[in-house]
Amino acid sequence: MRRILTIAVIVSGGIAALAFAAYLFNNFWIQRYDDLIERHATVYNIEDRLVWSVIYEETYFRAWMKGADQEIGLMQVTPAVAREWAKETGLREFEREMESNLDEFLSDPERNIQVGCWYLEQLRAKYRGFPAERAMMLAAYNAGPSRVEEWTKDIEKSRLSEDEFLERIAIPSTRSYVGSILERYANTVESGTRNPGN
Hints:
- The chain is mainly α.
- The chain folds into 2 domains: 1-31; 33-191, Lysozyme (Orthogonal Bundle).
- It has 10 helices and no strands.
- The protein has helices at 2-31, 34-43, 48-59, 79-89, 92-107, 109-127, 133-143, 145-152, 162-168, 172-191.
- The longest helix has 30 residues, at 2-31.
- The chain is globular and about 75 Å long.
């Protein structure tokens, strides 16, 4: 009996140690780009917790991810958006880097977050001041600004609440995407931490 009890204690101690190690690794994993996120979110006047929530949803912080429609990196930036960013900002060096190896350029977390934050701010400018500003920006990021226009064409955007806008999203995956990010963002704001488990 004593031997069984000793084995049980060792096994449960091992399980607890593994669980703690997994918890620590997860915290490291989801927070390792916090400085980059904060820096670029500040430059483009986007809430860093919202950017963090977008990355969590898009790739769960895997910089090497590639999407089915050629989206690349942490924020799943498309080549078209990256080229628009380089042209708009006038950074010729970055234009040359993208021409030589776009995948490598957008797989770099620094550049990917920079371009992603720029694009979020471009989208946000279209909906600034509306009650559903965040939801519209996220829907446009996922499905394109033309879809947001389609879903709001028969109503004044300035009167549309976030919940009302969510109901109008006609693509279930986009509705889920936007809802998930908004919920995660709200949890990070409420808890004061970027770890949704805390």
